[in-house]
Amino acid sequence: MTLRRKACIAGAYEHPTRKAPDKTVAQLHAECARGALADAGLTMADVDGYFCAGDAPGMGAVNMLDYLGLINVRYVDSTETGGSSYLLHVAHAAAAIAAGKCNVALITLAGRPRSEGSSGVAPRAVVPNVPDAPWESLFSPVTVNMYALVAARHMYQFGTTSEQLAWIKVAAAAHAQHNPHAMLRDPVTVQEVLDSPMISDPLHKLDCCVVSDGGGALVVTRPEIARSLKRPVINLLGAGEAVKGQLGGQVDLSWSAAALSGPKAFEEAGVKPADIQYASIYDSFTITVLMQLEDLGFCAKGQGGKFVADGNLISGVGKLPFNTDGGGLCNNHPANRGGITKVIEAVRQLRGEAHAKVQVPNCTLALAQGIGGLLGSRHGSGTLILERA
Amino acid sequence: MSTMSQDRPLGATITDAATEPFWAAAKEGVLKFRRCSACAKPNWYPRAVCPYCFGDTDWEASKGTGEIYSVSVTRRAGPIPYAIAYVRLDEGVTMLTNITDCDLDALKIGQRVKLVFKPTEDGNHLPMFTPV
């Protein structure tokens, strides 16, 4: 079974908050759900499929559906691949719709890491019975250094430079200046990235995404339903998912799981990387973007540094406009998970509803890509290719 | 620039059926990994069931030498900078570890390293590496 044009993204909503000390995580989920359904022109009663991941408190759908009051749900999925989960949810929702298991699927994400004092240099919680934990946790892997190891190896193997990585942040900031909700709205230069404090070699502070509260939600529907609504019809053309680890000890940091999920999505969609007019690429760190661009085939392996340099990711300037909302690097990284905002900005671009300064003219084909978990050890990847009908 | 490594407090190890023989060998100064008795491939982190063929595996001693596959000096995750690294052992598996007892700023990918053990809070010995 192919998912090509079997489902549509009919609703999308990004919570405007970036700091929410006075709200609960469940409340943020509900506000996002309300926003996405209103955007689609649907109601609570229409929702018969629900998708959430590890940011949803408690036992996922069990606690959330009770809180949200969604009583017509007959299909649930709590697939968890970190920040990439929500891209997989879109694909799983499409599969469930194609199989007749539901008609209107709601996906929610929300969290308050900023209010709760989370950061990318904090020790990661050790959960009992996780098989890798005894062999790794005492060496103090934190989020940032498990991405820095990939960046260091890329520089060694391919000659990538800090200046090239900095261009990714420069492009995100160039877009974020037009987003009134973005946490960081000031344009930055390559030199400012290089001059920011070194967090974990070779990643500087400005190579890292923001820590923000907030959330987002998506509504995925059967195509007939999407066509009956008042919003532009956004079809899912192709999807891929993959998980990569340490390969039993044959660690290879030169490629990510996007090298597996990307080709599957392109094959299903029947398009090539050169056809993509806009790309949302998960930017937990600058190196995350560079790895995914190479692994998706936007450039050859090892050529990512050259590809991103000189503003090639800036809308209106370069060949591949990316993260026109400012991305995780500048706009928002709710729940420390950037997957859903990647889909939301791709939907905005396809609807022609991105900010006028960053809108890609006549954008009909877009890609949304995410990597969740730790790029340097174990991570999941989801790739979506979307078209405006 | 130079940043001499400092020993930082190491918490308690996780001891279970998978790790107990490993910590016992470490106390004797030996780094152990596991090799499949069916397909003969080594694996890391150590698994009782081979991640290549689902065969049974046995412990084997490493010579404790290898080279740095990747390294990052983490400067802003607590008061003491430290080097996290992947080291590829000469036996052909790559393990997450720390590089210590050296100038952290001088570390390079490809550099030869050898095993050193550092004591943990619960009296076990954690395998780290230092430049040869």
What does it look like?
- The complex is a heterodimer of chains A (389) and B (132).
- Chain A has 389 residues and is an alpha/beta fold.
- Chain A contains 13 helices and eleven strands.
- Chain A has helices at 25-40, 61-68, 85-98, 133-136, 143-158, 162-176, 190-195, 223-228, 258-269, 286-296, 304-308, 327-331, 339-351; strands at 8-14, 49-51, 75-77, 104-111, 198-200, 203-204, 214-221, 234-244, 278-281, 365-373, 379-388.
- A five-stranded mixed β-sheet of chain A has the order 1-7-4-2-3, with helices on both faces.
- In chain A, helix 2 links the parallel strand 2 and strand 3 (75-77).
- The two termini of chain A are 21 Å apart.
- Chain B has one helix at 20-27; strands at 32-36, 42-43, 57-61, 65-74, 82-89, 94-99, 112-119, 125-131.
- Chain B has a five-stranded antiparallel β-sheet. Chain B has a three-stranded antiparallel β-sheet with strand order 2-1-3.
Order of helices and strands of chain A: EHEHEHEHHHHEEEHEHEHHHHEE
Shape of chain A: globular
> What low-confidence regions of chain A span 5 or more consecutive residues with pLDDT below 50?
none
- Largest β-sheet summary of chain B: 5 strands, antiparallel
- The helix content of chain B, as a percent range, equals under 10%
Helix content of chain A: 25-40%
Order the strands across the largest sheet of chain A as they lie in space. Answer: 1-7-4-2-3
Number of strands of chain A: 11
Mean pLDDT of chain B: 97
Q: List the total number of helices of chain B.
A: 1
Order of helices and strands of chain B: HEEEEEEEE
What low-confidence regions of chain B span 5 or more consecutive residues with pLDDT below 50? none
Percentage beta strand of chain B: 35-45%
* Rg calc of chain A: 19 Å
Largest interface: A-B, 41 and 46 residues
Strand count of chain B = 8
Structural class of chain A: alpha/beta
**What class would the helix/strand composition of chain B place it in?**
mainly beta
